[in-house]
Predict the structure of Exocyst complex component 8.
Amino acid sequence: MSDSGASRLRRQLESGGFEARLYVKQLSQQSDGDRDLQEHRQRIQALAEETAQNLKRNVYQNYRQFIETAREISYLESEMYQLSHLLTEQKSSLESIPLTLLPAAAAAAAGAAAASGGEEGGGGAGGRDHLRGQAGFFPAPGGASRDSSGPGEEGKQRTLTTLLEKVEGCRHLLETPGQYLVYNGDLVEYEADHMAQLQRVHGFLMNDCLLVATWLPQRRGMYRYNALYPLDGLAVVNVKDNPPMKDMFKLLMFPESRIFQAENAKIKREWLEVLEETKRALSEKRRREQEEAAAPRGPPQVTSKAGNPFEDEEEDEPATPEVEEEKVDLSVEWIQELPEDLDVCIAQRDFEGAVDLLDKLNHYLEDKPSPPPVKELRAKVDERVRQLTEVLVFELSPDRSLRGGPKATRRAVSQLIRLGQCTKACELFLRNRAAAVHTAIRQLRIEGATLLYIHKLCHVFFTSLLETAREFETDFAGTDSGCYSAFVVWARSAMGMFVDAFSKQVFDSKESLSTAAECVKVAKEHCQQLGDIGLDLTFIIHALLVKDIQGALHSYKEIIIEATKHRNSEEMWRRMNLMTPEALGKLKEEMKSCGVRNFEQYTGDDCWVNLSYTVVAFTKQTMGFLEEALKLYFPELHMVLLESLVEIILVAVQHVDYSLRCEQDPEKKAFIRQNASFLYETVLPVVEKRFEEGVGKPAKQLQDLRNASRLIRVNPESTTSVV
């Protein structure tokens, strides 16, 4: 393709008013044949490939420029941040100079030159401590600075105030007495699941809490308050380096966790060390406060009694055990770290470890008094128990994944039972399994063949029910028997869910009675398998299906009656001619399968049968109805089935009786008597016998019907049927 042709085609395709449909229409009209269209297609394809290459080239060039620009911006941002940090340090140093000169000025006014020199030295030390705090560390209270605690504490407070004034939304922290800054520094926060960078933050570690503030890019050196975490509920976890993700550590505080990255390995190590040291110091401080609060109660009572010479010795003796009862040793290391350990276990989903710690504490405090320190510990632990319970409840909620079967819930259920939440565990377990069964039924594909779908439905439902029952017996063995009652109620509810899906597919879709009978038979067989674990739900499935089966029997009965009436209206009372021996043999087999063993006596020469077509068709249809109905039979359907049979038989018998009364031709009348004899002496005894075999007891209504010579008296002058 020439350059001029390609450029012309490109301009045409790039024009603003280009319409593809119109272009193709014109091209088809102008082309001479298939060859022209193929060549034009190749030209357009070559133009598309050229355009794609140009687009890739432009994208690559723009992408390189974008990377270079982003790198320059990053460098500029780093330099600006370093400049801001230097300016902040200079400002802090200038602010600390007047504070260091105040003691010297006071000493000079008093005329004590030597003392003023000493004060200046002390002020210089305070300034160095202050600058050191700006860089990161602050000396812990006590030690060499305990003698000059007044200025030292004020310096720490002033440093904390100066830094926190740069954090928006944390004014309430400045009102906490005894709070001072221990360590601070810049960090980068990452997303916990995908390790994507979230934001730049600044951490302020106080002696009792950790403040996290987000960096404000539009205001250099300023931060916005993000979160505040008490140290007694905070756990620190070192994150192993996995390049390019390195120099990271994780903070666990139920129910969340956050990951931060330090600037380098040294700063990360300093963060980990100072966090652990500060937490340890806070724990030791709380322990000493508890001991001091519990210690003074006993001695005043003993002193007062010992100082009173008029007290009896009998009154002195009970005082000693009262003092002893109030002393509960809570200084054990594992008890001091118990709330923190529980937080770690909950955050790491170590539910067994958390419950083991609770059992250990309950065993330790068993049969011991409850002074205020123990009550305070109990309050902290109860809060963790509440949090643990919420997590376990969420594990069993239907919102969680339902895969894994009933065994996937065993872990959460067993821990709830150990926590004394047996009833709640039972309720949540059954609710979880109900959602799983409902989801499994809903996800079944409705196949074209109803029987195939019912096989799958029964397999899914009864297998789930059997697995749930076995898991329930494993999890709740030895618990309150009320849980087993709850399971039976749940099983009945689940069976209702199954029957709804079953009936919708079998009975609402108007399937034939034979198909419905096979489906019900399959459901009964699966239900009987539950007897292996002592669970019999057969009576429940009978009670839930009885209405639908009654409707199916009534509907099929009406179909047979209408078909019989239609054949009766066209009855000519003629013998059947099956034309071929094969057809006669087939009819003999059909009648034999219906239970008519003496059908040979009603066959004539060649292929003739000495019975009416109406009577033969009625016999096959009635016996087929009886066989299918017996597959559906259970005691609640006894009268429904019996009444349906009587109604069907009455239609045929009444027609034969009426024909005998009205027919005048002797030959036809003899043929009608032969058909009546076949009904009374052959068909009805077979129906009665098969019904008794299927049900287990005889039916008096069928016996009366067979023994009656005339079922309905007909007016001799009447020429219309009473049916």
